[in-house]
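Title: Request for sanity check on MFS transporter prediction

Description:
We are preparing a figure and want to confirm that the structure record we downloaded matches what your pipeline produces today. Could someone re-run it with the sequence below and paste the raw structure tokens into this thread? We only need the token string, no images.
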Amino acid sequence: MIKLLLKLHPIISVLLIGSLFSRIANSMSLPFLAIYLAKQTDLTPLMIGVVIGAAPLASTLSGILGGYLSDKFGRKQIMLLSIYSWGFVFIGFALAKDPIIFLLLSILNGICKAFFEPVSQALMGDLTEQKLRAKVFSLRYTVINAGVAIGPLLGVFIGLSSSGIGFMITGLFYFVYSIVLHLFTSKVSIPVQKNKTVYSMKQSLIIIKRDKVLMYFILGACITQIGFAQFAPLSHHMSTTFEKGVIYFGWMMTTNALVVVLAQLPLSSIFERFSTITGVYVGNGLYAIGGLGFAFSNSLTEMILSMIIFTLGEVLCFPAGTILIDNLAPDHLRGSYYGAMNFTELGRFLGPTLGMFLYSTLNISWLFSIIFILLLVSNCIYMVGNRLWEKQSKQDSLSEENPLTPYNKIGTV
């Protein structure tokens, strides 16, 4: 890992370290938002799901704009604007009392994430040579989950207090991170992209819309996100089913992060011999099995075993999905392509909303049985997109060998 860091641009090291500590702060508050809202407001479980789901819905609608603006005006400006704003959002969560204010803050949280996350990933792609990108994205995912391993335990003690101190600490940390990133990017030069072609927002949307492979991958990832975004109903189930449910849920979230940290490198080494899409297929399958485990577990031990299976799916799905998009994206539109992937955040909106509805009207068993079916559907959609990509790749190869063969038009204006 140290050898890899020495090969990387200094900005990437700052982003990796920032990702570690920001997730410590973030995960000691946001995973408990459903419980926090239940204590602070009179919202029903369904409305709590809507408030939580508003963040990914906002990400869905604003993500491509953030990616496009970063392609046109530069990664630095968009990153700094979003992360400074993010600090105010968390301070707002700590001080808010009105449900409408919580809803607005959730929307702003989604917008900040939609601007910062894809833009920072695009910048990491810009500053990393092709052969090292898979390792960089896997390392980013590992350090993020190292932070998440610590955050929930802190949240158990301070994130659920009536004063909202967990959100306050998270907001203050984001201010510190903003200042450090601002100072560092001012002193260290960021290379300008070699391809200076700049498209209008309309042209970028046309290009993305024409890329049918991207559309299939977005749809598949969106459904996968529905399956992943069930922590709100799961936390509600834990808090009402087990005597120490809140503490148990904190341990489960920590288990989730620890498994990512411990399993990331071994699983990455194992699956290097397979195609990237294989990681998505297997990951979705493990998500499905782990979800069924949640539905039928009656003890903390069974819940943790289910979380381990569920998390192994996460270890495979998330980095593989990032690599798929990075391989698919043209260099001059990488920000826009990462921004387009924010449409998958629609799944994170539908996930808690649908999950809380099914949980409150049916039960936890029905919820995760339906999720099981949806994840199998996601694999089918990914399979269709991958076959189309393979077909297009063969056509591109023939076009290069035979100049008289028409070129594939995907990715062109």
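Thanks, this matches our download. Residues 194-199, 402-413 have pLDDT under 50 and may be disordered.
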